[in-house]
Structure formats: C-alpha cells, structure tokens
Amino acid sequence: MEEQEKVCDFCMRLVPEAVWEIHSVHCQRFLCLCEICAELVPRSRLKDHIVEDHPTQSCPHCTDLIPSDVFSSHLQRCELRPQPCPFCTLEFPIEQLIAHQEICSNRTEQCTLCGLYVPRRDFPYHVVTCKPGANGSLKRKRTEEAAGVPKRAKRQ
Ligand SMILES: [Zn+2]
Ligand SMILES: [Zn+2]
Ligand SMILES: [Zn+2]
Ligand SMILES: [Zn+2]
Ligand SMILES: [Zn+2]
To answer: Residues with beta carbon < 5 A to ion ligand 5?
Structure first.
C-alpha cells in the first residue's frame, strides 16, 4: 500500500501521515526556528546556537547588535557613523555633521599663498584660481609673511 505523506506545518518536511500529528507536536515542542539562519534548532539549544553560530557585536555608533560576519561592513554603512567634515578634520554623526558643515564652511581661512581670507567652502576653487605674486612685489611680500608666520592659534 502507498504511504501518504503530509507536509509538517512547522518544519516543512514531508512526514508520513500516520505519524504526522505526533511529529507536529514533537516538532513544535522540541524544535524552534532560528530567525537568523532559518534553521530548526532544538528549543533548549537555541540560546547556545545563537551565541555560538551567530556571534554579534554591539555597534559603537547605533548600539545595535550586529552579526560579527557583517560587522565591519555595518561600521562602514551605519547611519550613525561619524563622518569627517570636508572643511576640517573633525568627525561627526551625520545629523550633527549637516549643522556643523553649515557653520564650518562659512569660517574663513587665510590662504597661505596670497594671504586672502577665504570662506572654507570656496577654498577648493580659490586654490585653483589663486595667483600669488601675479600682481607685483607687494603681494609676494605678504605671501612670504603669511607662509612664515602660522596664525593658526589666533584664528577661531
Ligand atoms: Zn516537523
Ligand atoms: Zn541560526
Ligand atoms: Zn551601527
Ligand atoms: Zn568642520
Ligand atoms: Zn590665495
């Protein structure tokens, strides 16, 4: 005679119909589904299974628990990771960075080549167009002064 088989609702395996009910009860009672790897794990071992097979690390930025195997890529992509301000070397979480950049980009910085004070946001363009000494000796002299005396401590 042909044995009928039925899919277990829990483990999705084909089980002979004769033992299906017993199997289901057993399945539900003793096994449980690991949400991380979708494997069936004995209920009593689930905690150990997660600790051993899915080690996690706490993200220092968002404090989420991140599986160790994707931890380094999470650090690169974490929404709360600090990002460097393009205008200075400081790092800020993204929502603070936007506010900081607004202030930071408006700060002026003295060009060491021509001595002009230029807003940081314009600096990349200024460096390209800056022509120190092109207009005679006065400018060249100021250039030398600016280059020789660092005024970093006074500026803020
Ligand atoms: Zn089952
Ligand atoms: Zn698992
Ligand atoms: Zn994170
Ligand atoms: Zn900045
Ligand atoms: Zn300049």
So the answer is: 111, 113-114, 130
- In order, the DSSP letters of 92-156 are EEHHHHHHHHHHHHHSEEE-TTT--EEEGGGHHHHHHH--TTTT-HHHHHHHHHHHHS--TTT--
Summarised one tens digit per residue, pLDDT across range 89-121 is: 899 988 889 999 999 999 998 999 999 999 988
Q: Which domains does the chain have, with CATH numbers?
A: 5-52 (3.30.40), 53-81 (no CATH), 108-150 (no CATH)
- Three-state SS at 2: coil
CA dist., res. 149 & res. 143, Å (int) = 10
Cα(72) to centroid of ligand 3, in Å? 10
The CA 54 to ligand 3 mean position distance, Å, reads 17
